[in-house]
């Protein structure tokens, strides 16, 4: 077994390096990485502050489902939301966001009824989805357990 003569970096140093690498990449993006919002908002604390469906998707959902909504596999499996026939039923998407399922957490405590309706409506009208019947905040309220 070979031993490295270099000292191991402390965890805090590794985390700082990783953060710097991520921040440096903020200025560039791949063609299919989705929209860059001009007035980006960032959540502070446990509740999200974004209000539009696009802001919520970009800042919350895109991390797992990717900018093009095609999902990803690797350490976990993140399903595609593009051209998703399951989104035809608005209640299905609302239920998933409110209650979570498998590896997806519940966002019931992190988003208001308006925010959940906005992100569900955004998904249902973008990424090859063309479902025009909008979900209302009252529908979200009814789905909460």
What is the structure about, briefly put?
The protein has helices spanning about 10-25, 55-65, 90-100, 115-125, 135-145, and strands spanning about 70-75, 75-80. The chain has about 140 residues and is mainly alpha-helical. It is globular and about 50 Å long.
Molecular structure report:
With 145 residues, the protein is an all-alpha fold. It is 39% helix and 3% strand. The protein has five helices and two strands. The protein has a two-stranded antiparallel sheet. A hairpin with a 3-residue loop joins strand 1 (72-73) and strand 2 (77-78). Mean pLDDT is 81; it is low at 1-6 and 25-34.
Please tag this protein with its features:
145 residues; mainly alpha; two-stranded antiparallel sheet; 5 helices; disordered N terminus
Q: How many runs of DSSP E, i.e. beta strands?
A: 2
Low-confidence stretches: 1-6, 25-34
Q: For the largest beta sheet, what order do the strands appear in spatially?
A: 1-2
The helix content is 25-40%
Overall, the morphology is globular
SSE-based structural type: mainly alpha
Rounded to the nearest angstrom, the radius of gyration is 18 Å
Give the mean pLDDT.
81
The total of helices stands at 5
Q: How far is the N terminus from the C terminus?
A: 55 Å
Beta-strand residue percentage: under 5%
Order of helices and strands: HHEEHHH
Main β sheet profile: 2 strands, antiparallel
